[in-house]
Amino acid sequence: MKVLLISGPNLNILGQRQPEIYGSQTLADIEDLVNKRAKEWGVTIRPYQSNHEGAIIDFIQQERSAEGLIINPGALSHYGYSLRDALEAFPGGKMEVHLSNVHAREAFRHNLVTAPIMDGVVAGLGWRGYLAALDALVPMLQERHGRPTSGDAGAPGL
Length: 158
Prior knowledge:
This protein is an alpha/beta fold. Helix content is 37%, strand content 17%. It is built from 6 helices and 5 strands; from the N terminus they run βααβαβααββα.
């Protein structure tokens, strides 16, 4: 099973950009953590980061054969309607992650145009949100594809 791990604008400078909000982990740190958990699930992760909405859309369209994706669209989640359309057209499972609790921040961050077409949204858990998204996504995909699941008790790291 292949899951895309997509990071939007400014996530390439995690660890440097406002660590009091976004944490001290770098994007590479987060990708490593997700990769380790994915291996426990028997899942392959395909990471991708871009500061350009069109490049992210191209990547999603090129990788349509993946069974699922986890995306942190960054600020694109608030106004990226073309990204929303590409995500809606993606046939696999979809989880959205935000490091900070967007609902406890500035009012413009409360509206997530991408969230309504997602299978789930995780916000405010920092880097742990990525693991929570993966731990929710994989059993969901297994069920969709008629594969037996081990149940929550058998999930990696739980």
